[in-house]
Amino acid sequence: YQEFNYAIQVAPPNSAALRHAHWGFGWGALRAGDYPRAVGEWLLAQQGYDGHPSWVPWSMAIALWAKGDHDLALQYWEAAVRSDANRWASTRGLDREMADWQPEERNIAQELHAEWKRRLSNRN
């Protein structure tokens, strides 16, 4: 984490560099299995935006699911689907998005997606 901490330390306040450092730190933490840290870094990265960055719902959903916060993860996943159904609602779209992901990240997203679909079918 040393490099991420350094990048955060030297980035100007409220800058794109600071947002990117927190975003990258979040992915590094996720890949290291430090899911609470991933959530925290992504919350910090999100604060620097005026609007709603498109990466927030699906990224947070994956980290929250891995962390065990399944209900909140599903709420974020639902937001991801609402914002871009072509990417997140279908298995085909999800597979396309995950082509370059690490196996653990794919497994997390597939579990989350399967549970989202199961709950969706129970609503109908």
Report strand %.
Answer: under 5%
How many beta-strand elements?
0
Task: Profile the largest sheet.
Answer: none
User: Number of folding domains?
Assistant: 2
Class computed from helices, strands and strand pairing: mainly alpha
Poorly predicted runs are none
Order of secondary-structure elements: HHHHHHHH
- Total count of helical runs of at least 4 residues: 8
What's the overall geometry?
globular
The Cα radius of gyration reads 15 Å
- What distance separates the N and C termini? 45 Å
Average predicted local confidence, pLDDT: 95
Helix residue percentage:
over 70%
Could you explain how this protein is built, in words?
By secondary structure, the protein is an all-alpha fold. It folds into two domains: 1-53, no CATH class; 54-124, no CATH class. The protein has helices spanning 2-10, 16-31, 35-47, 55-67, 70-83, 85-88, 91-97, 103-123. The protein is globular. The relative contact order is 0.10.
